[in-house]
Amino acid sequence: MIAFIRKNGFVLLLLAAFLLSDWIIGYWDPMVTSRRFYKNDFTKTLFHHQWLDHGPVFFGNSAVTGAYIEEQSKSKLIEMGLSYGKLTDLKAILEQARFQVERQLVVGIDVHTMIDSLETDPTYQWFKPWYQPYVYTYRDYFRDSGTELVKQLYKGTVEMNPSELIAYQPRWIDKELYFGQKPDDELRKKWADYDQRFGWMSQPDYKDNLNALSWIIDYCKAHQLQLRVIWMPWNRGYQLPPYMPGLREEVNRRLATAGVPILDLLSSYDPKYFHDLVHLSRQEGAPVFTKEVDAWLASLAKPSK
């Protein structure tokens, strides 16, 4: 063993230095703590709530982000809409204790929430294997921020501009909202795109998210959480994706068996309230949706006579 260490000492030293530096960077966690780096929607949720990691939650994908106006709501739910968020993401958040849901969990399901193969944001914290180096996991964002840093160092040293040494462009920290209405020709193209990518799907294509739904139901029972589910609005000016009736039937069956209240708004809203096919307009649709959700949750909270 001693001979092996002597023979490979330099390589082992480099390996130890890499592991130590990666651990230090991981402990610093610049993807969360530094504005030099891109932030995913889960981190943005924490940031906008002063890093609060517990409370009642309205979970979903970007349809929830666009539709639920937290600051106008009387329900006091933390809006946790994640770009391309799925129920498998919620399961991972709860399993890994990345957020402690308290009292009430409202889940918004739209036409994309249950699709297993839908690509999502790879920077979500629950996707990183414990053994994978931090720098490797977020290499694209280190490259982006590192390129900027090199440029600032050049300006600060070669061009003799000291103020540039600490200057940088803070990365966007807000979630995407949806204003105005897209024209019909764009919506027709988007519907055709959705139909080509997902229209052929059936139950095997959302089995992982169905399993996640069952897991979430059991989790809420075990932790005495009030689980509520909302079918998020779809622009009824366009045909529902063909897989939706079967998906809705199976989801509703599981929820009914567990006694989970459902608010079905899938085809309830006029096209004038939409920005596109799945996102409500912030000015027109979101205020209406927020009030309707508040009224529904309040009616569930009233004791039965």
Description of the molecule:
The protein is α/β, with parallel strands linked by helices and 305 residues long. It has one domain (39-130, 174-301): SGNH hydrolase (Rossmann fold, 3-Layer(aba) Sandwich). It has helices spanning 2-7, 9-28, 30-33, 41-47, 62-67, 87-95, 134-137, 139-157, 184-198, 207-222, 244-258, 285-301, and strands at 54-60, 78-81, 100-109, 226-231, 262-264. It has a 5-stranded parallel β-sheet with strand order 2-1-3-4-5. The longest helix has 20 residues, at 9-28. The chain is globular, with a radius of gyration of 23 Å.
Layout of helices and strands:
Elements: H1 2-7, H2 9-28, H3 30-33, H4 41-47, E1 54-60, H5 62-67, E2 78-81, H6 87-95, E3 100-109, H7 134-137, H8 139-157, H9 184-198, H10 207-222, E4 226-231, H11 244-258, E5 262-264, H12 285-301
Parallel strand pairs: 1-2, 1-3, 3-4, 4-5
Helix pairs in contact: 6-10, 10-11
Low-pLDDT ranges: none
Please report the number of helical segments.
Answer: 12
Q: Largest sheet, if any?
A: 5 strands, parallel
CATH secondary-structure class: Alpha Beta
Organism: Paenibacillus allorhizosphaerae
Protein name: SGNH/GDSL hydrolase family protein
Concise overview:
This protein is of the alpha/beta class.
